Amino acid sequence: MAGAEPLLRRALAEAERSGRPRAIARASQSLYYLLRRQGRHAESVAALERKVDALRRLEGVDGSWTAEWRNELIGLYGSLGWYGRLEPVCRERLESDVRRYGARSTEASWALLTLAWAFRESGRPEESEALARQALALIEVIAGRDHPRTGWALVGLAVVRARQGGLVEAEAALRRARANWLAAGHTDRAVAVEELLIGLYVDQQRHEEALALSCAWFGGRPSTTDERQLPRVERHAALLRAVGRGDEAATWEARACELRAAIERRRHECERLAADAPETPGATSCVASRLTGPVFPSPLL
To answer: CB under 8 Å to 74, separation ≥6 — which residues?
Structure first.
């Protein structure tokens, strides 16, 4: 890969000298993929921006490939926390989707929720809340109050209300999202909502209720040997200790120690083999993270 980078940069420079958008789009995409594969996410932004700009010139702001790669850029800006650049691209997406699909469309609702997420993460909760409510109302009109699509808007609304101190409304929104997704068989999303509910309960010192949800999760998945579950095991131990069940907490703390040791052994083995180290498990599940981020069109929605 080290030898490929200068060649790809030369190819992009030649494409830009040619002034042909299609050549620029192709060359910038190759460089972008290389940088992302190397984990150089911040450096990859410039290549992706060139890709999106070339597509705008090639097929217009409302082109399907422009939309596809603009969404990629939105996700990248968000993951890097580059909120100054994020808002204009989210607004462009919303305006484009309204033109393409209409103001009363599910596509417009996803764009509203993505802009709401951008506002929330950049510290503008009132604007974020207003957009989340607008998106929720739109989805309810299109699909109905109990449709699983409402879950995305309900979660977005819950997160911003919780940050504003509206814990009662946040909990009600999360419970409704969970019920709508469970009714449709989306158990992975329902479990991710439970993760958010546990966090909400812990913030309010409602340890018994948080523990009940945690027990239900482990009750349905008896194996605790999966290293990816380390944050859940640690949290379960902490909840048991918080409610005075010290002996059980000690058992779960021992399991957490075993998982941490297994992760360390695997990391050392990977280093010995000159391989990449494994990813450290996050505090929240990947699905829970996706629920609170941007929403892009997908058949799975």
So the answer is: 86, 89, 90, 93, 114, 294
Instruction: Look at the alpha carbons of 52, 53, 54, 57 in this order and tell me if their dihedral is positive or negative.
Output: positive
The residue with tokens 């993505």 is 114
Distance CA 200, CA 197 (A): 5
- The pLDDT score that the predictor gives to residue 196 is 96
- Residues in the chain with pLDDT values less than 50: 274-275, 277-285
- List, for residues 81-95, the tens digit of each pLDDT value: 999 999 999 999 999
How far apart CA 113 and CA 157 sit, in angstroms, is 9
Interatomic CA distance for residues 39 and 117, integer angstroms: 24
CA distance 300 to 213: 26
In sequence order, what are the residues at sequence separation of 6 or more whose Cβ sits closer than 8 angstroms to the Cβ of residue 260?
230
- pTM for this predicted structure: 0.87
Cβ atoms of 5 and 27 closer than 8 Å:
no
Neighbour-count burial for 98-135, b at 16+ CB within 10 Å, e otherwise: beebeeeebbbbbbbbbbbbbbbbbebbebbbebbbbb
Q: Are 78 and 294 in contact (CB under 8 A)?
A: yes
Per the CB < 8 A criterion, the answer to whether 189 and 286 are in contact is no
- How many CA within 13 A on the CB side of residue 205? 0
Do the beta carbons of residue 297 and residue 107 sit within 8 Å?
yes
Residues 6+ apart with CB under 8 A from 124: none
Angle at 75 between CA 29 and CA 149, to 5 degrees: 125
List, for residues 95-136, the tens digit of each pLDDT value: 999 999 999 999 999 999 999 999 999 999 999 999 999 999
